[in-house]
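Consortium newsletter contribution from the modelling node. Members have asked for a concrete example of what our holo predictions look like. Here is one, prepared for the zinc ion complex that several groups have been discussing at recent meetings.
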Amino acid sequence: MRPVLGIESSCDETAAAVLDGDGHVLAESVASQEAAHAPYGGVVPEIAARAHLALLPDLVRGVMARAGLRFDALGGVAASAGPGLIGGLIVGSQVAKGIALAHRLPYVAVNHLEAHALTARLPGLVEGGAPFPYLLLLVSGGHCQCVAVAGVGRYVRLGGTVDDAAGEAFDKVAKLLGLGWPGGPALEKLAAAGDPARYDFPRPMLGRPGCDFSFSGLKTAVAQAVARLGDGALPAAVAADVAASFQRAVAEVLADRARHAMGMMRARSPEARLLVVAGGVAANGAIRSALRAAAGAAGFTLLAPPVRLCTDNAVMVAWAGLEHLRLGLEDGLDFAPRPRWPLGELTPAPAVRDT
Ligand code: KG4
Ligand code: ZN
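And here is the predicted structure:
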């Protein structure tokens, strides 16, 4: 298999990467748009789309130059085609299709969630590559779900959030504490100095059957506690206690939900042994530890990829493209990006359908 170019532009990270035919990274680049969106306290879709358009051509040229490759040396071009913000998806897809058309290369329209799901199979993370089936806990700013991953294109959503995503809860609580946006990393830093037992915040869904999540009640409880603590900025030590108590509540809920999901996974696939965590929230140390303990107790091993592979990146998109191309799967240039594109709506790869 020849090298594959991957492009990511579904939210506020503009990224490009080139992998060799075995999945080793030849070059990668991520341009964060954080500074452009920070004044608004969240991602502004129109600003994101324009930034992708401004950044992507140079980013692509840059990774190709560093990989030492011309476009016609590629075996395919893959781009996130959904779910995500439509403006960015159009920009990334058009760039990929343009390259594919000009150089007569196969094009792969990658489902962004599938890219997160397949990251675990990148060479070097698990000896010989993570074997199917495994359980995926995807926790990011926009997604919070447990997925049984049975093969390329074969995903079953076991449960998900009924309201906010975990990352959204981090961002909202960080805002309450005046930490700016995105809030997750700043909140984790602040929590390190706080007492996680100081405030007894609710643990929504804890112990309930299944593996659904809910975070809006927790966020409201934190908002009420902050309001009770008085007007204006909280003293640093108090804010640290709130952050630590909130983070512990989220970690306990995620560990509990993952425990249930592992039980559900075992019932479906008794041979499953791997819990993979992905998405920006997987960068959180306290959450990783809680998940590692829950996995160990259930006879699973936690695979938490390096942080740069957990947050949005193009390595995972190129890798998902490679997995498709290896199975002879490519998409037509008429594929229309899909702002909503649930994992359950993917076509299973024919080569693995009956395994
Ligand atoms: O996967 P990601 O980069 O983008 C998508 O949402 O698709 O995830 C970003 C989310 C944000 O909500 C951010 O606050 C959260 O991940 N996050 C964290 C941490 N780092 C990023 N949440 C908790 N602790 C962190 N260290
Ligand atoms: Zn993502």
